[in-house]
Amino acid sequence: MSERKVRVRFAPSPTGPLHIGGVRTALYNYLFARQHGGDLVFRIEDTDSNRFVPGAEDYILESFRWLGIQFDEGVSFGGEHGPYRQSERRDIYKKYVKLLLDAGKAYIAFDTPEELTKKREEIENFQYDAHTRGMMRNSITLGEEETQRLIEAGEQYVVRFKIEPGEEVHVDDIIRGDVRIMSDVLDDKVLYKSADELPTYHLANIVDDHLMEITHVIRGEEWLPSAPLHVLLYRAFGWEDTMPRFAHLPLLLKPDGKGKLSKRDGDRLGFPVFPLEWHGADGTICSGYRESGYLPEAVINFLALLGWNPGTDQEILSMQELIEQFDLSKCSKSGAKFDYVKGQWFNREYILKTDDSVLAPQFDKILRENGIEAPIERVEQVVGMMKMKKISFIKELWPLCDFFFITPTEYSMDDKFTRKNWKNGAAAEMRELKTLLEGLDDFSIESQRTAIDAWAEAGGHKPWNAWRVCLVAAGKGPDMYELAAFLGKEETLRRMDNALQALPEA
């Protein structure tokens, strides 16, 4: 195994938007592949044609583009192991179904849904297996001639895997160790359906993983009960020597830890469970991390630490650091609570460390939605001045900094900040300050600071809060010198005039 090039895959079904749990699975596969210099394959598992949703595949691909998770081959990426869409591999699967049938490892069953339902009513805890297959309508009980006659007559059938009881099956799991289960508890799973000439997941993923030379299968815990069946399938085909190693990831749990995370949890508590906004065919719109204002780097960092940690106190990790430190054996066996508040904290941390030029377009969009058009350089300046405020999302900036773009029209002593700071000669002080500013040819931050600080010290003035009243009409905003320099001399003096006219002598 160590001599083989590491190859992993992410294989979603195009049945709707990609759940955030699926994103984490893809991320762990990506980190593992990159750490080991391996390949990440993107495969589409669309054998369930009844559940296919138009647009889902494009949505999944766009999600990964936004997140920065890159695939090496697969659907839309090309490669030497295609086709990578299971619906395009029908003939391949038929070949391997025949191999199992010819070897006596599988059999054909004609039982109708009605017949199966009746049998479940007759037998408590009915399971189609070695103990019951002899009383069912299949090629074992019917014989070769009758089986062929029914097939030629067009009767629909399935192919079931023939599992023999009394065998202890071992699953070598990187996270959970040696998982053992007796074959007696396994049923004869359906591998193929004649109705649509497509295999079920169990056969398709085994055949595909083998032919695509997958060395490690990293997937969700929900597939752990199926792993013994998959081991037996590898044996049945004679592929045990090249069977991939398994790693079954812990579930993402509700924020309170009670059950698996669902879309309803997000709806109830107000956080997304999908990477991008999803528009359903019925007109429903589901929120996405991108549209909610999350930075992709923050989402990646947050997800990486749900069920795994580097063994240190470090929480902020770049993609490269995650690649270097990721270790499947350090993944938790138990489920990880989805702490969406922590996700918001990550977003704040990444806003602080992200270049203002990257954040500015996001805020510019918000400005335009509020009827404001400003040069992007000015938008960038505002972001730089204000992102230090306690915000988790860029959209939270607008109510904190609307005054940068809109001149205050109301000054009222009813405002708590104004009432507290417009007194004790504030008006007279602001007139002095206005005169000082009128005389400045250089209105830069440093020029203002030098002149005003000297005036304030000489006269015992503390003008900054009253000045903020003039320029903002509220107790918010950045450093006053930064604000005045941004507004410019003309706008600064105009706002001071407006305040002096509107507010009483104090």
Summarize the structure.
The chain has helices at 20-35, 56-67, 90-102, 113-122, 139-142, 144-152, 201-211, 227-237, 263-269, 296-304, 319-325, 340-353, 356-369, 376-386, 398-401, 416-421, 426-438, 445-459, 464-472, 480-487, 489-502, and strands at 7-10, 39-42, 73-74, 106-109, 158-161, 168-173, 177-182, 190-193, 198-199, 216-220, 245-249, 252-253, 278-279, 285-286, 336-337. With 506 residues, it is α/β, with parallel strands linked by helices.
What does this molecule look like?
By secondary structure, the protein is an alpha/beta fold. It folds into four domains: 89-249, Glutamyl-tRNA Synthetase, domain 3 (Alpha-Beta Complex); 263-354, Glutamyl-trna Synthetase, Domain 2 (Glutamyl-tRNA Synthetase, domain 2); 355-405; 407-506, Arc Repressor Mutant, subunit A. It has 21 helices and 15 strands. The protein has a four-stranded antiparallel sheet. Strands 1-2-3 form a three-stranded parallel sheet. A hairpin with a 5-residue loop joins strand 13 (278-279) and strand 14 (285-286). Helix 10 (296-304) crosses helix 12. The longest helix has 16 residues, at 20-35.
Could you describe the largest sheet, including whether it forms a barrel?
A: 4 strands, antiparallel
Number of domains: 4
CATH class descriptor name of the largest domain: Alpha Beta
* Mean pLDDT figure: 95
How would the global form be characterised? elongated
The largest beta-sheet arranges its strands as 4-5-8-9
Figure out the total of helices. 21
Q: How much beta, percentage-wise?
A: 5-15%
CATH architecture of the largest domain: Alpha-Beta Complex
CATH superfamily descriptor of the largest domain: Glutamyl-tRNA Synthetase, Domain 3
Spatial extent as radius of gyration: 32 Å
Summarize the amount of helix as a percent range: 40-55%
